[in-house]
Structures are given as structure tokens and as C-alpha cells.
Amino acid sequence: MLLLVVGATLGGARLWVRRSASIYRELDAVPRGEVAIVPGALVWPNGTPSPALEDRLAAALDLYRAGKVRRILVSGDHGRVGYDEPNAMRAWLVRRGVPSGDVFMDHAGLRTLDTMQRAARVFGVRDAVVCTQEFHLPRALYLARAAGFPAVGYAADRRAYANADLDARRELLATALTLVDTWIGRAPRFLGPPVPIQGDSRASHDAWTRELMVR
Question: How far apart are CA 135 and CA 125, in angstroms?
Fold first, then answer.
């Protein structure tokens, strides 16, 4: 009986979060937005993005090349020495022709909630296209709306992922916790000075990061 109740609760939370998520799978159908937001994921020790993260970056690159967005915000974990998602993400995009000035780095995107809250409160994002795997998009878009800006999703699924079943099960729990977080008004772990997405991306580079992370 308990398992049924838990299952129904998790399933209900998922349906609630999905109810108004606009998700696109074809590039041509994606509406134009101010910025593509790429939530972080695992980076290997040599600085190479994992397959899931590489596909998120490839989706953002396609949007940028198609003129669907003017800027890209890469948001991930750079909270400890020797592990750096945002710089790995930025380097991947710059190597493929995205001008450095059009790539903004959020070094404190420790969770999806932090990424979306900081997009609004630090970077001043007014609307966005979120690039991540389809299982993750409903929660990411819900958190963008909760942060105060409209967003649509561009599904980044470009291959079969080794842990897809486990990720889907984890996402059920993460979605339920997201509803609790938004209900109690949980804030991001770090904020810091404004870095307007309409301005100079250099303000988001590493000198600012070091200042932020000691506060």
C-alpha cells in the first residue's frame, strides 16, 4: 500500500510539472529566444564533456548557428578545485566557432534550481530555450517559470544513454523535491553581482568566479 501511495505521489508530481512544458524535437520548430541555457552534467577528468553534456551543447550550438538564439549560458558545477563544468562547456562551444563574447558562464549552477534562479536573478534572462535531455526538460522548464521567465525546451537526446533508466527513476524523485523547493521558496546557494546576459560575457569569467565562491 505504501509503495502505491509513493508511486502515485511521484507520478502526480511529474504530471503537474509536465502540464505546460513546451518541448521541441525539431530545430526548425523551435521559437526564437534570447538565450540558450545549457544545464551542466558530468565532465571527465581530462575536461571532455560526457555524452549527455556533449549532446546538450550540440543542441545549443545548432540553435546558435540557426539564429534561434543570440547568446548561450552554460551553467554547471565549479565549486571545487579540479572540477570545472562551465569552462569545459565554454571551450567546447568556442572550438566549434561560437564567439567567446556570446558564451556566458554560470559557475554556481549546482542544481537545476540554482541554474534557473541565477539565470533570472544574476544574468537577467527574460526568455530562454533550455537544452537538455527530454526526461529533464519538464522540471527545468517548471523551474524557469518559477524563477520568473518563460522558457521552451529543445530536446538534446541524440543517442542512447547508458544510465537512461536510472536517470528516469531519479527524475521522479527530483521532480517531487522540486515542488517542495518551489513551495518553500528555496534560494540558490550562491548569488553574487549581476552579469546581464545582454552585456559583456567577460564579467562571467573566472576572476569573478573566485570572488563569488569565497562569499
Answer: 23
Measured N-to-C along each axis, helices 2-18 and 137-147 cross at an angle, to the nearest 10 degrees, of: 60
Grid cell locating 13: 508530481
Reported as a pLDDT band with limits 50, 70 and 90, residue 1 is very low
In this prediction, residue 4 carries a pLDDT of: 35
In this structure, what are the phi and psi dihedrals at residue 166, rounded to the nearest 5 degrees?
A: -65, -40
**pLDDT one-digit tens code per residue, 165-177:** 888 888 888 888 8
Answer yes or no: is pLDDT of 20 > 60: yes
Name the domain count of the chain: 1
Q: Give the whole-angstrom CA distance, residue 176 versus residue 179.
A: 5
Look up the pTM and report it.
Answer: 0.87
Pairing mode, strands 151-155 and 23-24 = parallel
Q: Give the pairing type, strands 71-75 and 151-155.
A: unpaired
Task: Provide the residue range defining the domain that includes 160.
Answer: 2-213
Distances (CA, A) of 152 to 66, 93, 103: 16, 21, 19
C-alpha cell at 178: 522540486
Question: Grid coordinates representing 18?
Answer: 509536465
Supply the CATH number for residue 56's domain: 3.40.50.620
Q: Distance of CA 35 to CAs 18, 45, 182, Å? A: 22, 28, 23
